[in-house]
Design goal:
3 domains, 446 residues, 48% helix
């Protein structure tokens, strides 16, 4: 290729990468949906992205075979040029998809920066091709590494964070330090009675992005793993379980948990943790161990349905879970006890647009755990249509006094957590007067 043509194509590639960087810096995806035509174009990203992947992987193959067949090495330059164009196009359409399609979150941003970095690495390979073989080989290795990493981030966006590792053999898990995901029966004692307590009272400080004392409580595996000082749960031994000791300390103790003025466990919740640990801290515990607990609903009375039967909607529910990256688990074995909306495993994926898409099953949700999500005042309009909602956690979100006014429409709301939000005292006073609202948490709200 003539030197002048190579120079102009290199300038064009560098300019394109610079413009992509500016788009990410000054027009990042913010969870807002935009023009349908932009969304239409953006949805070609999954199709286009496979073109540079195939071409870039072909380049080192041609280089290696070219050691024997020289003419194949010459073809590597042409394939590389196509890979550069494909990588830039894929990154552009990826930005268009995320920016216009209502996406946001750290995983989306990482994937997009990976795509732009890959495009830059491809341009660097093109600039070094035929000029400095060693530098070209090093740049090509970097590009392949970025391709693998960016592809992994994209796979997590599409299929979930554990898609690549959930079937990994145990020897490889030990080698790479990957823990096995324990499958939790959504109707088990742990899923119905124990994990919701952790999600509501503990996960704000002990999650995958903020784990005090190196302790995470957002999954059964992490609860049983413990923190920097060892295990916090000793199955069958209350006296040796640091978790139980801390939740039963006097409120003014410096070791009392939850700390920092956050809502403490109720006597009923403390009793559930006590029974669970004493019975062996397994996912399912013997039924006789639960006889001393208040049942939910009370088995001694005729259970009043909280919602309609969710089973006819189960296909819709599972499809929404897969597409939105959230979970909707049964509150109990009774199909008229409704669903719990859980976002704790990936709070950044829950946005105002996510809540809007839950409208077909909104009347089945009785408990919405939205702490640390990206929901704003706009999302409160969608939540106001969750007619059977009893429990709502909006702690550490961008919700303000303007948005919470919509929550006055929720006739059955019993508990509302607005910790670390921008809700003013005046708005809080109005909420406190709401009929039926039994608990309102406003720690660090302002």
């Amino acid at each position: 290729m003539p030197l002048r043509v190579r120079a102009w194509t290199l300038v064009g590639g560098l300019t394109s990468v610079f413009l992509l960087m500016m788009l990410l810096l000054y027009a990042p995806p913010d969870g807002q949906e935009r023009a349908e035509f932009a969304q239409f174009l953006g949805r070609f990203h999954p199709l286009i992205v496979h073109i540079p992947i195939a071409l870039l992987l072909l380049v080192p193959l041609l280089e290696c075979v070219g050691l024997i067949q020289e003419h194949l090495r010459q073809a590597a330059g042409f394939v590389l040029a196509l890979a550069v164009a494909g990588a830039i196009a894929a990154a552009l359409f990826g930005w268009l998809l995320a920016w216009s399609g209502g996406f946001e979150g750290s995983l989306v941003i990482r994937h997009m920066w990976g795509g732009v970095s890959l495009a830059a690495a491809c341009v660097a390979c093109w600039g070094l091709y035929g000029w400095n073989r060693r530098a070209y080989a090093a740049a090509l290795l970097v590009a392949i590494g970025l391709l693998i990493w960016t592809g992994d981030q994209g796979g997590k966006l599409t299929h979930g964070r554990t898609f690549l590792t959930e079937r990994m053999p145990q020897p490889l898990r030990r080698w790479f330090g990957v823990e096995r995901k324990v499958q939790i029966d959504p109707t088990s004692f742990y899923a119905v009675r124990v994990q919701p307590i952790f999600d509501q009272k503990c996960v704000l400080c002990h999650n995958d992005e903020k784990f005090k004392g190196k302790l995470r409580l957002d999954s059964y595996e992490h609860v049983m793993l413990g923190g920097k000082d060892g295990r916090v749960v000793s199955p069958g031994e209350l006296g040796k379980s640091e978790m139980y000791r801390r939740i039963t300390l006097p409120l003014d103790s410096k070791d009392f948990m939850p700390a920092e003025g956050k809502p403490s466990l109720s006597p009923e919740e403390t009793k559930i943790i006590e029974v669970w640990i004493a019975a062996g801290a397994t996912i399912r515990i013997p039924e006789e161990a639960t006889r001393g607990l208040a049942q939910s609903p009370d088995k001694k009375t005729v259970a009043v349905p909280l919602t309609a039967d969710y089973r006819p909607q189960w296909k819709t529910i599972t499809e929404l879970e897969a597409s939105l990256g959230i979970r909707m688990v049964p509150r109990s074995q009774n199909p008229t006890d409704g669903l719990i909306l859980r976002t704790v495993s990936a709070p950044e994926r829950c946005t105002d647009a996510t809540l809007a898409q839950l409208a077909p099953v909104g009347n089945l949700i009785v408990d919405a755990e939205l702490a640390r999500t990206k929901v704003t005042d706009k999302g409160m309009q969608s939540i106001a249509a969750f007619s059977n909602l009893r429990f709502l956690d909006l702690s550490d979100t961008a919700v303000t006094s303007v948005g919470v006014k919509d929550l006055m429409k929720l006739d059955k709301l019993e508990s509302l957590n607005l910790t670390q939000t921008k809700v003013t005292p005046n708005a809080a006073a109005e909420l406190q007067s709401k009929p039926g609202l039994k608990r309102l948490y406003l720690f660090e709200a302002h």
